[in-house]
Amino acid sequence: MGSLRNLGFLTIGLFDGADPGAGHETTLEVIELGERLGFDSAWVRHRHLQFGISSPVAVLAAASQRTSRIHLGTAVIPLGWENPLRLAEDLATVDVLSEGFEVFSDRVQPHSPGLGSRLWYGGGSLSSARWAGENGMNFLTSSVVKAEQSEDFAEIQLSHIREFRAHHPDGDKARVSQGHVALPFAFEPADYTQILTDIAAHLGPALGWQPAQ
């Protein structure tokens, strides 16, 4: 087995309905901690009508002002609820805020060169994996999958990865992101701090990963 090259984490940003500001602040502090520990990426996701992040792009905009190296991502934004043009502008704005680079051109503004190659498509079926590959995107595997050729989760996810890479111009080098460890939502902030610290100090290096500098 090859060495683990990249290590990131995802948080849903839980908060108390009576004091949502404190929960969002904790989420930003966790992302800052991830950068200090050398994680390569931090991800947030939608939790509509629940006590979790409802606006990942806004949270990432805030996180971009507190970090300088760690990659920030969303997993995932359901496009059915979004205006694609508005979302593209929001993501480009966050990318500019985090990268500090803007170029004028006759297109969606602000323009952030290279953002297209860093888009990830979340899929849980063979057809979604195939579409991501055919369109040259990165592929974000899902914990919710469609059983088409097997009922074994590992086999299903592997079939999606193979389908994606079989249709991607980069073949076996096409980028795939997998979630390997899932933690209970109800942990306290101190628990997440301890777990991230232990992963960065012990588990990651044991798998060949080295903290980013």
TrEMBL record:
Transmembrane segments: none annotated. Keywords: Monooxygenase, Oxidoreductase. The keyword Oxidoreductase applies. Coiled coil: none annotated. One of its GO terms (cellular component) is cytosol. One of its GO terms (molecular function) is oxidoreductase activity, acting on paired donors, with incorporation or reduction of molecular oxygen. This is Luciferase-like monooxygenase. The lineage of its organism: Bacteria, Bacillati, Actinomycetota, Actinomycetes, Pseudonocardiales.
